[in-house]
Specification:
2 strands; flat; alpha+beta; about 45 residues
Amino acid sequence: MQINGKTILHGIMGNPVSHSLSPSMHNSAFQALDLNCVYVPSL
């Protein structure tokens, strides 16, 4: 999947979030459903 101007951004904010499995779970689901979305943790 290519991120572009139509990609919908989802995320998680908090401190710490490095342990969160949410990005990998959500991105796998987005890919399986062929959705133009990406889930990222805050830095």
